[in-house]
Every structure is written in C-alpha cells, then in structure tokens.
Amino acid sequence: MTVPGRTLREVVEALEALHPDLKGWLREPDGERLRPGLAAAVDNVLSGLQQPVAEASEVQFLPALRGG
Amino acid sequence: MATRSGNYRVIGTRPIRHDGVDKVTGRALYGADFQMAGLLHGRTLRSPHAHAKILRIGVEKALRAPGVKAVVTAADFPPPGDRIADLGEGSVKVRDLCANIFASGKVLYRGHAVAAVAATSPQAAAEALKLIEVDYEALPPVLDVLEAMQPSAPLLHDDLRTDELGERGTRPTNVAKHLRFEKGDVAAGFRRADRVFEGEFRTAMVHQGYIEPHNATALWSPDGSLTIWCSTQGAFTVREQVSTILALPVSRVRVVPMEIGGGFGGKIPVYLEPAAALLSRKTGRPVKLVMDRTEVFEGTGPTPGSVIRVKIGAMKDGRINAAEAWLAYEAGAFAGSPVPCGMMCIFAPYDIENVAIDGYDVVVNKPKTAPYRAPGATNAAFASETLLDEVARWAGIDPLELRRRNAAREGTRRADGIVYPRIGYLETVEAASEHPHYRAALEPKGGRRGELRRGRGVASGFWFNVGLKSSVAASVNPDGTVHLVEGSTDIGGTRTSIAMQLAEVLGIGAEDVQPHVADTSGVGHTDVTGGSRVTFATGLAAIEAAHDIERQMVDRAAALWSVPRDEIDVEDGVYRHRTGSKSIDFKELASKLSECGGPVVGRATVDADQRGVGGGFATHIVDVEIDTETGKVAILRYTAVQDVGKAVHPSYVEGQIQGGVAQGIGWALNEEYLYDAAGRMTNASFLDYRMPTALDLPSIDPVLIEVPNPGHPFGVRGVGEVPIVPPCAAIANAIHAAIGSRLHELPMNPGRVLRAVLG
Fold first, then answer.
1. Alpha carbon B615 to chain centroid distance?
2. I need a labelling partner for B411 at 20 to 30 A (CA). Which of B134, B168, B435, B447 fits?
3. How many domains does chain B fold into?
4. Residues B553 and B590 in one domain
5. How far is CA B730 from CA B189, B445, B641, in A?
6. CB B217 within 8 A of CB B34
7. Among A39-48, B47-56, B130-139, which is the least confidently predicted range?
8. Which chain B residue is nearest to residue A37, measuring alpha carbons?
C-alpha cells in the first residue's frame, strides 16, 4: 500500500483517511503518540510520529516489544 | 555513523569491574540490607486458591495484634479506571497492574497477593497474617493453554474479549489476542515443496531463577513525597508504575535502585513497591517487604508455557521454501505474554520466501508472566530448530550446512516485515562448522554395559535487541578522572562496559572513570536494563557525553594557550596546538580547569531505537551422554558461537553467553512449574525446582564472532539474551542423535527420556 506523507504522522493520517476503521487503532485518542503496544519502523528503524519520511520510505507497524 | 575498526586502547580489554571488590567482599548493598530508623517490616497474605471470588476480607483482628501498625488491601488503591500505562516492557492496563499487586474481587492464581501487613518485626507481621480473615468462593481453575482456549473453559475475566487481528471480539474468552505475520504465499510454497514436515511442541512454565528475591522499602514523607529503595531492572519504570498505580505525579516519587542479584526480565514489573508505599503512608514510617522463595515462585512472573505447531516445506537440496507456525502462550492471570516476540524470532535466522505465523495470548490461572531473557524466543526455537533437524536428516545434509543454505543475510526480509541490516548469522554457522568441537569424534556408546549413548546436536537462535532511551552525565575531576553518572542498573557488568566506552573516547584508562548508577532524581530518564540494550544504548550516551567533554576541553586548552579552538587537535587524550609546540594531556588539562573556564561536565541523552539497534544471532553445538537405564542426560561439551558485534569487555560478554546457556540447559532438562489439579505449584523451592549448578555443567565454551553493528561507533550489539535461545533445541537434537527418538516436550527430564529410550 502506498500513501502520501512527509512525516510518519502524515502517513498515519493518510492511512486513517483511506481506512477509517484504523482510527483509534494506530494512535492514542489525542493523536500525539502511537497506541501503547504498537511500534512503527521507518526504513527498518523504530520511529516516532515526528520522524521524516522520504519518497520511497517503507513503514511497518509492529507489536512493541522489548526484552528481558 | 562510521564504525571504527582496528585497535582500541580500552575497548576489548578486560579491566577489573568497578563494583567487583564490593560485590565479592559483601559490602555491596542490596535491598534486603537496607536499614533505616523506625523501619517496619511487611509481609504479604496470598491466596491459597488458584481461582476464587473474594467475598470478604476482615482485617480487624490483625490490626489489634501485637506490633502491627497497618494493613492494606486493594481497597487502598485509587480507582484505576481504564488507563493504559506504557512501561519499559510494553503497555499494560493499569487496572490489571493494580489487580496483580492486590487481588480485587477475584484471586486468579495461588500466591496472588490479597493483603499486606506492617509490623515492628518480621515475626509479628507473619503472625498477623494468620489473623486476616478472607472468605473465598472457590472456582474451577484452568491451567492448560489449550483448555483455556476452549469456549467451555472457566473464564478468568468476564470482560476479556479477543483482540482478533485488530478487531475486538464479542464473546467472553480467555484468549486476549490473536496476531498474525504473513509473507508470500505459504500454501503455494507447501504445494511446491518436495516434503512437508510438521510437529507439535510443548514447553512448561519456568522461572528466571534469580538468586535475590524481590524486595522494597518505602518511605512516604509528610510532605507527600515518596522514596523507594528496591531491587529492580529499572528505577524509572518503577517510578512510572508506582506513580501510575498510586495516582501520584512522577515528581513526587524517587526510586533508588539497590544492587540487584539477578533479574533476567523478572524484575521489571513491580510487586512489593506499591504495597510498601501504602503501608508507609498509613504508618508514617519506612516499611520494608522482602519475599521468600516460595513467594517468588508463586507470586512473581515466570515465563509462559506454550504449545507450538510448526510446519516446514523443504526441497531435496535443503532449501526451505515455506514455513508456518501456530503459537499459543500462557499469559498467566492477566494478558500480555511474549507471544509476539516468539513470532518474530521463530524463523528469524532464515531467508524463507513464504511464511505465515499465528500467535495467541491466553490467560490461565497461573502467575502473570513476566519477561525472561529473550522472552518467547526459546519456546519458539525449540520447535523450529528441532523440525529443521528433521529436514536435514531427510535431505541427507549436515545440519549446519542446511542452515548455511537458508541463512538470512543483509537485505533478507523477516516475516514481520523488517529488513535486516548487516548481520552476523552466517558467520556464526561457518564458525561453528569449523570449530574443533564440531569436528571432534564422539564415541556413540559408553559405559560398562554400553548403557551410555552419546549424540551431538546443533541449533541456532535470534534475538532482536532493543534501543530505548538513556541519559548520562559525566564530570571531570581535578585529578583527571571522570565521574560518570548513569541510570542503568547493573545486572551484568555494564557499569564497566559503559565506563570503558567513555574512556576510549577521552583517551583515558577505564580505571580513571568512576561509574555510578544514580536514582531517578540524579540522572535523566533511562529506560530499563533489559532487552540487551545497556552496553549499546547507555554506551552511546556515554560516547556522546565524552565528545561533549572533549569539545569543552578543547575550549579550555584554547583559553589556556590563548589560541583559537580550531587550531587544536585531539588524539588519544592529548590536546595539541597545531601550529605551535604546545601539547597537554587530559589529566594535566583537568588539573588546570579552574584557571581556564571552570568545571567541565558532559551530558547526553539518546533515543537509541533511532540509531540502528543490531540484532544478535547464535549457533550452538552440544554433546550429550544419556544413561539409558535412568534417562539422565549429561552435558559433555557445549560450544556457543555468537555474533557479538564488538565485545567491549570480553569477559562479561563470555559471562553473558555462559549464563544464558546455563539457563537454557536447565530449561531443557529439568525446570518446570509442577501443578496439582487444584492449581497449586508443588515444587516452589530451589530444592524441588531444579536449576543447574556448577556440579551439573561442563565449562561452556563461548566463541565471540565480531560483525560490527553499523549503528554503533564501536560496532556493539546486545549480547545477553541470544544465548538462552538455542540450548533447548540443540539438546533435543543431540538426544535424538544419541537415542534415535525426538522429544517434543520440555523439560526433557529423566522420566521423559527414559520413556523415549524404552519406546
């Protein structure tokens, strides 16, 4: 799936516009952070919503995992 | 970020650890050592039932007992509401967090805390527990993950609905979550395969087995501030959890991490801290709680048992073209097992075109699970690596050659979508293949009657490691030493590995850096010591703080010499005026700081997730000897090959590998929570919960492969968790080589092995 956006936040907003069911699933209600338990990687690097996204960047949504 | 190669002065050496003398002479202060004027002692009342409604809790008699100053229960918590807390190890419902500290409405496992008492002595507190009256209505427990998934199973939570691939289910259930990773077309892959292999595997709940029990002392001051001294893997996560549970601003909570006697992930959740805080608030005095071993087993967080089904499609040349896995993990009493981690790791060492992985997080009437060293990955590797051994034997290919042919490399995409950067998996396989252990002959039989059978097995493993956030501050002393303040509790020698990185940049010795682990008031936010992150992430912060110091020292030299700062070069701790003859080393310059600008303090804070965390791979070789008359498995020889990126302090990297392997061996051969039908753990002591000792293990031979992580200036990768991932499978494969039977259930204890021998 390809969506426009200059930051991860804009990518998420574009996804939510295309698929309204995703609203409330990717971000916290105030829209400022990813939902707890969810992580996002931009070009394989874990990133926050402010992360710039390049034209051919790849974004993945993953469970937030840590370790022991 | 460029990676240095070549010789380092400090990195790669083996200085004596800074906390070593205190640790070996008994001077190091652990939580149970803590003393304070007016200290009260707490004890916790725990449920005898695995599943029951709480009808009434009567504390009046206990309050009247000699020496008793206060009793607390769940009723003393502020209402948790529907808040979600983002902890150092992922997110959790605050309501569940509170309910695991003190049961509310229902007890969900034997050992579930119901109330706590503070008294003038531990004995008085223990006597008072007997006077607390709790009326229960016993309910049937569910103790098996597959049974818990059935629609007819007793339900732990009336309001739990499955998060089914992002959609909330409508039916009450014990299945908290269903996740799926998918890549390619697994059905087509299986159709093309020359042979499809399938297996079902079971693992038991096991405990991290840290030697030091949980402990916490709390002092709630009249001004409303709260100080906690405790054994923890993360002072800031304790602060976050406690402030969330008690509805306090974080600024009112100070957490002082004491030395820690092992954690392995199990000391990230809080258990005693909120109770100690509430008791201190009620009494106006400091209150200390220390668990005994039974409480540790029954009332903290082991790692889940699991059922895992794996299917692999292979070609005659050994290429794997499809892989499928179904994983069901016990979460314990509340949702949140490490099944996503298991899903991420199960096929991670391999480049497989078509993959589908389904994972289920399932609640059962057992303690709420907590992370245990590469949580979820050992279970997963036991399944996948055992099945791969079958593939190798069918194809007639050496098992390491099979792994080489299917090895993931830079650019391989994992099933969860991540594309690997530079990784060292192939190097571990090749090094294992060439190792003298792998090439040594192994007599297949021994013993006077030929009753001893020997076999060799191999397995690989992966752990992704994490970055998270770290902060440090470092001040230059007039004698040229540096006082380094950091926030990562030291569970593996990281004080020293962080100090070494700072020393390397500044051009001073590791012994000239004095590391100090500060409390939450003394250092910037630092995430947990977990996820094999500290040498990588807090090391990055130390490196940046060192560069900050270096910039200031250049300023000072410039002021000292009255020259422009851009005419000064620095190399190996020596500052030189490029056009003149002046030079000065770090120590001498430090002695003159008061003359040329004053103190120098460097600082840094990093979000290491953004820097390129390097995942870790390992390949292990093990020789076993089985007594076919008793079923006992002896480990004859063990070699653990691991890509460590760059071993900052090789002794501690080797120690991490040996420790992880030792835990993996215990997991493979002996350890399990044994339950009776009522849900009571019947082996809740170190006597009966059998962990390996020095008498059980040979010397474990760690082989360090260094494929630098491009995300770190010295190439560091996390090393602490990968070593526990391969042992169960490697030993299972060795047992098969010895006796010709495959065991699909852990632990592979003498009873199970003997049954396999006898057929």
1. 15
2. B435
3. 3
4. yes
5. 27, 19, 13
6. yes
7. A39-48
8. B91
Instruction: Inspect the interface and report whether the beta carbons of A68 and B416 lie closer than 8 Å.
Output: no
Pick from A25, A51, A66: CB nearest B466? A66
Specify whether B40 is located in the same domain as B83: yes
Q: Would you say residue B1 has pLDDT above 70? A: no
Supply B476's token pair.
Answer: 């230059």
Helix axes B494-506 and B534-561, enclosed angle (nearest 10) = 30
The pLDDT value given to residue A21: 83
pLDDT of A67 above 80: no
pLDDT for res A23 = 82
Find, in chain A, the residue whose alpha carbon is nearest to that of B411: A44
Q: Which pair of tokens denotes residue B750?
A: 């003498």
In terms of domains, do B228 and B291 share one? yes
Please judge whether B208 and A68 are an interchain contact, meaning their C-beta atoms are less than 8 angstroms apart.
yes
Percent of chain B with pLDDT over 70: 98
Q: To the nearest whole angstrom, how far is the Cα of B119 from the nearest Cα of chain A?
A: 34
Rounded to 5 degrees, φ, ψ at B124 are -60, -40
Instruction: For chain A, say whether B467 makes contact (Cβ under 8 Å).
Output: yes
- Distance (Å, whole) CA B101 – CA B73: 9
Structure tokens at B102: 């003190």
Count other C-beta atoms under 10 Å from residue B411's C-beta.
Answer: 11
Q: What is the mean pLDDT of residues B21-38?
A: 96
- What is the SS3 assignment for B559-615? HHHCCCHHHEEEECCEEEECCCCCEEEHHHHHHCHHHCCCCCEEEEEEEHHHCCCCC
As a whole number of Å, the CA-based R_g of chain A is 12
Domain ranges within chain A, ordered by starting residue: 8-63
Q: What's B76's domain CATH number? A: 3.90.1170.50
Contact B341, B375 (CB under 8 A): yes
Helix (H, G, I), strand (E, B) or coil at B259: strand
pLDDT at B642: 98
| Residue B173 included in any domain | no
Distance in Å from the first CA to the final CA of chain A = 34
